[in-house]
Design brief:
Helix content is 38%, strand content 16%. The protein is of the alpha/beta class. The strands form 4 sheets. Strands 1, 2, 3, 4, 5, 6, 7, 10 and 11 form a 9-stranded mixed beta sheet that branches. The two termini are 28 Å apart.
Amino acid sequence: MANPTKVPFLDLVTPHKELETELLDVVKKAFSNAGFIGGPMVEGFECDFGAFSHAKFCVGVNSGTDALRFAFMAADVRPGDIIITVPHTFIATTEAISQAGARIAFVDIHERTYTMDPEKLRDYLEKQCEFDAKTGKLIEKASQHRVAGIVPVHLYGQMADMDPIMELAEKYNLFVVEDACQAHGAEYFSKKDNKWKRAGSIGNAAAFSFYPGKNLGACGEGGAVTTNDEAMAARMKMIRDHGQAKKYYHDIEGYNGRLDSIQAGWLSVKLPHLAKWNESRRNLAHRYHELFAEVKDSVVLPVEAPWTKGVYHLYVVRLHDREAFQARLAEAGIGTGIHYPIPLHEQKAYQSLGYKTGDFPVTERVAREIVSLPMFPQMTRAQQDEVVSAVKEFVGAKVAAMR
C-alpha cells in the first residue's frame, strides 16, 4: 500500500495560495464591469504574451487544441492536405490536424531529444514525396495528396531542432506551426540567424496551451496562437469568434473558441512570474542531473541539446521495469507520470492511417521506458532529495538482484 504523499508529482496549490489576493482581484474586476468575454483583460494578456514570446501578434483562444486547429485553418489548409508531425505527443496535436480537414503523416523522433528528427523528416520529404517545381507543390507519392505543413512538437519543455526543419519547409513551400504547448519561454539558438529565438517566434505560427499544469497555466482551459503574420492573426481572431469581423457580420464560418476574460486576467497575474518559475525548473533539473550522475548507467537522464534552453515542463527519465519503478516510488509517497505510454500510430483512433508497430522504432522504444518524475517550481530540496533517494534505492536493489 502506498504511503501518504511526501512529494506530489505536481503542486498546483502552493502557487495559487501565493497569488491568491491578485487572482481574486481579477474576479472582482470582472464582476464589477461584467466584462466576461473579450475586452481589455484579453487584449492586455495577448499583448503581454506576444511580447514574452517575441512574436508580433498573439490570439487568445479556448485551448491549446483550438490554437493548433485555428492556426492550420488560418494557414489555408485544404481538405485532404497532409500535415507532418510525430507520433510521440499528446493526441491534441493530431486531433487538430484531422479536425482542420487535413491528413496526418508521422515521422520518428530523435532518440535523445524526443522531438522531431530532422533527418527522418528529410527522408520522408525526399523519398516518399515528389516536388512539382511548376506548381510549387509537394505531393506524397502513395496518396497523391498535397503535403502542406509541418508541426514540430517542443516536448517536455525542450525545443525541436528548428533550423533544419525550417530549411526543409522553405525548400518545399511548407508552412510550420510550432506545437509549443509545453514550451512557454523555451529558447532555440539559430545558427542560421546567429541568435537565440523563443518558442513561438520561429514558425509561421505557434500554439500554446494554458492547461493548469503547464508552466504558465490558467485556472481552467485556455490557449493562444503567436505569429508574426498579421493576416494570419486577423483570420484567427475571426475563426475563434464564429467567423465575425464585427458582430453579426460573418465573413467565414468559424468556431466558439474564445479565451474568457477571467482566465486571461489570471494568466496576466502569473505571466510576470513565469521567467522565475522557469529558472527554478532549470535549477531543479540540473540538480537532478548531478544527483543522478552515479546511476546514469541504469537511468537515462533527459538531454538538453546545445541549441536549446529548456524550461523543463517535465523531467522525463527512461529505465527498464517501469511498472516496478513506479510502484516502488508510490510506496515511498512519491508521485510519477507517463507522457506518453502508447504512440499515436498504435492508438485505436488512428488505425485507419495504416501504420503498424515497427514503423517508428524510436518512438516505440521510448514509449515503453519513459517516466516523469516530480517537477514544479516550488519543489524544495528536501522533496527532491526524497525522490533521488527512492530512485537510487530502486536501482541499487535491481543491481544487487542481478549479482
